[in-house]
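Exercise 7. Given the components listed, write out the predicted structure of the assembled complex. Treat all entries as one system.
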Amino acid sequence: MKPATLPQAFSILLRRDLTLAYRRRSEMINPLLFFVLVTALFPLGISADPALLREIGPGIIWVAALLASLLSLETVFRSDFDDGSLEQLLLSPHPLSVLMIAKVLAHWLITGLPLLIVAPLLGVLLNLSTAAMKTLLLTLALGTPVLSLIGAIGVALTVGLRKGGTILSLLVLPLYVPVLIFAASAVANSDAGLPVSAHLSLLAALLVLAISLSPAATAASLRISMS
Amino acid sequence: MLRFFHQLASPKHFYRISGKWIPWLGAACLAFMLAGLYQGLLVAPTDYQQGDSYRIMFVHVPAAWMSLFIYMVMAIAGGIGLVWRIKLAEIMAISSAHVGASFTFLALITGSIWGKPMWGSWWVWDARLTSELILLFLYLGVIALYNAVEDRRTAARATSILALVGVVNIPIIHYSVEWWNTLHQGPTVTKFDAPSIDFRMLIPLLLMAIAFKLFYAVVVLLRARVEVLQRERNTSWVKALVAEHE
Amino acid sequence: MTHYDQTDTLEARDLTCIRDDRSLFSELSFTLKSGQVLLVEGRNGSGKTSLLRILCGIRQPDEGHIHWNGGDIYRLATGFNAVTAWVGHKDGIKLELTARENLVFARSLGTPSGLDIAEALDAMELGGFDDVSAINLSAGQKRRLALARLLVTRSPLWILDEPFTSLDTHGISLIESMINKHLVDGGMLAVTSHHTVTLDSNDITRINLSA
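Answer.
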């Protein structure tokens, strides 16, 4: 029997993580509820004026998405660290950075993609136009993978720490700023009927950059945290 | 060549050499600082728009330069420490973090004080101040991570990675904040970099910039020496040093 | 069955490990050849686990080098991972996956030995637990499942940290015979254990870190 090729190992790891998520699916719903709940708090805290909500809506939805992504971030490596599977991944003969892409992809499919599905509902709550809703989905599709990729570095650095969770937000949130700015202003622009192609290209550029740099940084961080 | 660097990078050697440098660097820093303050507060002319309140620029601008400069130094030192596993580079990186955070904080405070008469409020979401604020959070993240990891070498290596990630992100953050600022406020607040600066204002600015660099050098060496002693406290040379001073 | 290359050599030179500013061991050197055992002894906190983690490459030594067949293991990197198998304190088992799924995954991360998953489970006396979630296994059964990884992958160098934890006497003798077979096949073993290990081989190097 031959050793698994890299694409095989990649898909086996991806499928394993998806299977695990399916078997603990009750946990998946929490960040999603959080996303909806945080968004619903803003009208209560500020005002229910439809014009105002429409103006601040894109920012609110994106801030909520940022926080929801942060909340679910720890699960990328937490259980693998706790039960020792992470050591086994580290010692596999496959390049760790490629395995990291599989881990982050699985994590995005489990936690990022559901945000896209719920987002239109939030758009309705905050009175967004149809055009803005489309842009919102596009920005979430381009932006949330960047959040997962950047976040994975932060989790890799803090996975061995007892108080990792509180530090994680300090490490990761400042790095989320560009995504927030480009994405939220894209949605606001399209609500005002302005072009958004520049924003979307910038988000796509961020995604390309994150895909090319983050896996190696995550792998290096894990090696340091585990030592 | 490599051998020379390895020797220089040995903690014991560093401790000896840095002890000799610090008084000289400190004296030079004081000289530049006094000259800069004299030029800035007494010689430089009053601004026809802002009166004398602009003079805080001689602290604010060099501090803002230092905040970025130190982050670069920290990331480069961290990168060197990671690749060549040189302990001293790791120590330099983490010793820089606190100084860098202090300069960033200073830039924020002075920016806010400077802004008060100009804008009529202590805080305006000006592009440069916002970037500084995010930079401060990046520094605080580095420091928090370093303090959270128990093993010092692991901590230094982890913070080095974080500093490198930050250094890739700083230009992106800076650019995105500028973009955000022009979108939301229009190009109103670019008064920080006056298009043509009076020569008599430039001189104190440069003097202060040099003084701040020297100050950084002194403080980072002092911090690094303490860190070296703590890390090497079980080695024979540190024990001999302690015995000498008792 | 599998026979390993008789010329394989693991050589450690002048290893030093510092943890939390405390030197655990320094200038430790040894050589491990095909069929040989390295038994690491010492009190709690003497650095046994750290040494094993350094040997398998999770941790880097503060000083010194480890060579596999003459090449530095950090340069070999994933190439060295292909010849080692590690079972640490933690089982490295996913509780939500079945015994079979756990082993299939482990096999895909290493070089398959050619042994069937069912055969490996039988050998660890876990036959019939194929489709049982690992969460329903007892601690000893989980440990045996973790050690079954060694059977489904082909690695000449086994690095085991307290392999007999939570095993009963029968379980221990099961693992001992598995190790004996590995050594006869020309494999090598680095191990720590609180239990006395009874092995057929006389070729045992002992390192006491408390000494």
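Discussion: Chain A is about 85% helix and 0% strand. Chain A has a mean pLDDT of 92.
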